[in-house]
Amino acid sequence: MTQSNQRGRSQTLVVPPRTINVQKFAESRGPELGTLHSIIKNRLQNDFSSQRSKRRRTTGHDNRSTKNKHRKRQKVGNKDVDKTASLGNDKAAPRRVRRRTELRMNPNSGFLTSGDGTKRLRTHVWHAKRFTMTKLWGFHLPLGLHGRGRGSMALLKKLKDSALVHDTSYLTIVQLEGPEDMVLSILDKTTVHSSSQSENASQDILSGFICGKAMLHHYGVPFSAAIAPITYMWQPQNFCCINAKATEDTYEKQNGFDDFASSRQLWIFINASAFREGFEALQHACKRQITTVLNHPMNDSKCTVSCISLEDRLANLDVIGSRALHVLRKTLNPATCNAPRRDSESKFVKTFEEDQIPSFGVISITVDDPRTFTEGGVANSSYINAEGALAYKKHEIKGNASSVDNSEKESNSPPCKFSEFKENSNLSENMDLWHVYKDVHPPVDESLLCSKRHNQRMELFGLDNRISGAFNTPVNIQHSRCPILLIKNYRQKSFIRWSIILPLSWVKVIWMSLISNGAHAIGLREKHWVACEAGLPYFPFDFPDCNSYSCLMEMDEAAADESARRTPLSSRPFRVPILSPWNSVHLALDKRSPTERSFPLHCKDLCTKEFKQRSFHDFTGCGEDQHATTPFQGFIARTSHILSRFLNQINGSHLLLFPKFSNGENNIFTVIKDKMWNEHSDMVISPVNYGPKLCFVRVLLRAYRKGVFEGGAVVCAPHADEILLLTQRSECSEGELQITESSVRSYFARQDDGKWECQIPTDPVTEDSYRPPIGFVTTGSILGSKKPVAVALCEAINLACLREDQWRVASLKRRKEIYVLVRNLRSTTFRLATANIILEQSEDDDIDYL
Q1: Per the database record, which ranges form the POPLD domain (predicted)?
Q2: Which of residues 206 and 469 earns the better pLDDT score?
């Protein structure tokens, strides 16, 4: 082989030999090896034995499980598969061989199950070696790292400085497909959306550019029986824009283009604990909607809405932390067309660097197998559907809906790249995650990739020890590409979360790549800590109005009773309610004077004559809901619109509750600065008409000075003199509000039916220190947090009256926070804390969750 140099002379290149003879190579390098040996000999003083401090006894040669067990156990590998096949019907393979072979399987759909039918995640083997596993919601789920449940400080540090990853494949996707107007009608009648969404944001949700959050309810009763919080997204309207002209001509010839355009797909993400109830509710809603359409005089037999479950098709991975985007850039390499790479001007890099993706934005992208990267950095993004992000950014800048169309016309690069990819590789039909009924090709088996890498190394070193038969036949390029959806959950700058929706068969590949690139895996317990640190409600712990919460608390209570039964009486702790008695909140309202409330004894007559005549009677009506089986007697106001309508319903517009709206109405700071408020508040106000179904709001509790609040702690109303005593006390003072040990034990009593009730003391001595509950802590404070916060649900009327009492005290400064007393269930000390109502702080309502 010759090559011309700069002077024009030909130069012969020496090609390395194909194979190397090791014996001849050693003979030719004999003097060099001898010199090297003498140097090492002098350095070690002719003592080539290993140091005793570095000697380790190894048992790698022994394939027996124990010394006392003489039966040899071969290591599980490829030999086990051959052994299983060779045995046939003569002798069954050992269970460990069959189980390991089964766990290595990677089918396109479906979860692997254990003997009792419990499903295993695709990352089950990885988690089982490192985490404490638990059976929950029909899955084997990672509960947390081994130990006593500590390590929150290290986790919060990783959240701040690194990235966390959690396998949320237990979330089930329900697909609704049908005419857009019918699917919209079903969604409106079964969910409660955020009332602060602008028209542009709602239009972007419908277009598929961003996803939405809502609370799922039963059909027709959206304010009485909550099922679970959901995340939903629409199939993008311009998803089939690759060959739009040909598609348009085809459907115009068939006179069915309008029907095709109006047919949409909607994905709804439901937690596994509420999947059965939510899926049945959606199926019932589809049947009711179809019946309504058929009874209409202008009915059409083609108008149907299908409701199917994609439980065994798709998976979900959450990447959380400040460096989540950095890990994603190293892991996800967008598939490229034959055009040359331009990393610096890649739409993928520019989109993320310019932060043009809105909150809850959805990105459709096709990525290469992360195990087959050949170049560093991020490749050209030929598959990124960034039109929604750019359009939404122009919404925020210009503020008109017409900018979406203009941005789509101005940005010609994405459709062009789509068309180039189809012309070059013709893989557009298989790169559609929205049509999961088309089989998505699984990734290439790890053994084949290892064989390929081995052959490449042998070829690089010029050795002929290659594995024969590896990659002799070309593998389809579809097996090395995967369509995914990226969802950006930027609720706040301090909490960054990305969700990856991908086919179930690709979970192992993406998971191992995320771990290799620096992400730290977490379990359910650590995810609960992250949600509390971010101030987000965690399902189902912060949703007592859902059946999933009741079922989970009953399981925990049964486990606590079993643990107490096995504990000796001398060291057995006294029982406390695991499922908080929410019905005891009525005692705090009943304790107030009749001028502040109007709760007649003939509640049934009041409900039938007054409340049921109003359109929004579900808030305070006493009628029982046929779907309500939860012991939570009340409802939770998660939007400012619901809280405002509740106040108008009970004649409580004068109450000091200020739900925050986007237009700035009911601003709490305006009332705080009003110097004439005391004069206006002395006017005669009509009593509040509340019923047995109370309204709760979510609050964030922060200890005034010190204290850690546990889950299930009691939130009580303090007196004005107690607030003055605790706020004006110096740091060195040790005095606290205390109750006796007997009062703690008798605060709650367990009835014969297993329910807990709050007991009113009859002793005059303990009656003065008795404080009825106004709410309960659902998520306790996280140890190690710089700003520890606890999540609680408190009754709205009690909070309003408590704020009014505190604002009337001249020596107390008016503030948006409300002073409350918090006591852990087994503690005798009341801690002073400040409560912040979420609906008064954020315009985005309280719909988001983790």
Answers
A1: 497-573
A2: 206
670 and 656 in contact (C-beta within 8 Å)? Answer: no
From 250, 285, 312, the end of a domain falls on 312
- DSSP structure class, residue 475: P
Q: Which distant-in-sequence residues (6+ apart) come within 8 Å of 290 by Cβ?
A: 303, 304, 305
Tokens of 371: 């195990």
793 token code pair: 């649900």
Q: Of 257-271, 493-507, 672-686, 695-709, which gets the smallest average pLDDT?
A: 672-686
**Angstrom distance (rounded) from CA 149 to CA 522:** 12
Cα angle for residues 699, 702, 706 (degrees, 5° grid)? 155
Instruction: Give 275-304 pLDDT, tens digit per residue.
Output: 999 999 999 888 887 776 665 555 555 568
**Cα diameter, the chain:** 112
Burial string for 71-83 (b: 16+ CB within 10 Å, else e) reads eeeeebeeebeeb
Instruction: Report the CATH number at residue 290.
Output: 3.30.70.1400
Q: How far apart are CA 818 and CA 797, in angstroms?
A: 13
Among candidates 660, 706, 668, which has minimal Cα distance to 815?
668
* 288 inside domain: yes
Domains in the chain: how many in total?
Answer: 2
- The stretches of 688-728 forming alpha helices (DSSP H) are 720-727
Q: Which token pair is 322?
A: 């400040």
CA 164: distance to chain centroid? 12
pLDDT the model gives residue 340: 45
With contact defined as beta carbons under 8 Å apart, do 695 and 619 qualify? yes
Query: How many residues in total does the chain contain?
Result: 850
Instruction: Give the C-alpha distances (Å, rounded to integers) separating 305 from 265, 278, 282, 502, 811.
Output: 10, 16, 10, 25, 62
Tokens of 73: 């156990």
Among 136, 137, 134, 135, smallest CA distance to 145 is for 134
pLDDT digits (tens, 9 = 90+) for 313-357: 899 999 999 899 889 988 888 876 544 444 433 555 555 554 667
Q: Are 672 and 741 in contact (CB under 8 A)?
A: no
- pLDDT confidence of residue 731: 54
Residue partners of 763: CB distance under 8 A and separation at least 6: none
Q: What is the model's pLDDT at position 793? A: 94
Residue 498 inside a domain? The answer is no
3-class DSSP assignment, residue 832 = strand
Residue 725 has pLDDT above 50, yes or no: yes
SS3 483: strand
Strand partners, 819: 834
Reported pTM: 0.79
pLDDT at 257: 37
Backbone φ and ψ for 756, nearest 5 degrees, come out as: -105, 145
Q: Determine how β-strand 519-521 pairs with β-strand 163-167.
A: parallel
